[in-house]
Design a protein that fits this description.
mainly alpha, three-stranded antiparallel sheet, 6 helices, about 10% strand, binds zinc ion
């Protein structure tokens, strides 16, 4: 487990956090891909080479790129949130996470939860409209699923909405009581 607690996230820290995520899987994938491409070149099977390169693009830009963008979306909001004094970036072999320290307001918590999947859906729509033949948009659009409450982003959004609604009801009651 790699952990960094910082008051200011630098580009180097963000790269160490995201580029080395799931590195054993990336090493295995790159090794197998290299062998397949070499085999395709040696046997002059251009179909194998093309298919391998397409798979590599989906793996790097689609799968890894969309998860990196998702985490950067959370980071962009949390790094600017009022009351957040430090941020912990974590990476284990299979997952990355980000935790704010200090006091995170409901509005910023909801915005941060939305920003991860939202950034991916935004890029997915752009890819879909501008280059649908690349077939990469699906990886990005699929991040909308993280907004359902089975996932942390969906749960954060739901609880922030509940607390916001409860606060608004309490303020209304107080206003009525003051009259
Ligand atoms: Zn997320």
């Amino acid at each position: 487990m790699w952990t960094l607690r910082t008051t200011r996230v630098t580009a180097v820290a963000a790269c160490r956090w995201l580029l080395l995520a799931a590195w054993p899987l990336n090493v295995l994938f790159t090794g197998l891909l290299a062998v397949t491409v070499v085999l395709g070149l040696v046997t002059e099977q251009s179909v194998i080479v093309r298919a391998s390169l397409t798979l590599a693009a989906h793996y790097a830009i689609g799968l890894n790129g969309s998860f990196a963008l998702h985490e950067l979306g959370h980071l962009a909001v949390l790094a600017r949130a009022k009351g957040v004094t430090a941020i912990t970036l974590e990476r284990s072999l299979w997952r990355t996470s980000i935790s704010p320290h200090g006091r995170l307001g409901d509005r910023d918590a909801a915005l941060a939860a939305l920003a991860g999947p939202g950034a991916c859906v935004g890029v997915g729509v752009i890819l879909w409209l501008s280059a649908p033949s690349l077939q990469l948009h699906g990886w990005y659009l699929a991040h909308v699923v993280f907004l359902i409450p089975s996932f942390a982003d969906g749960r954060t959004l739901l609880s922030a909405a509940h607390r916001g609604a409860a606060d608004a009801a309490r303020r209304r009651r107080e206003r009525r009581g003051n009259r």
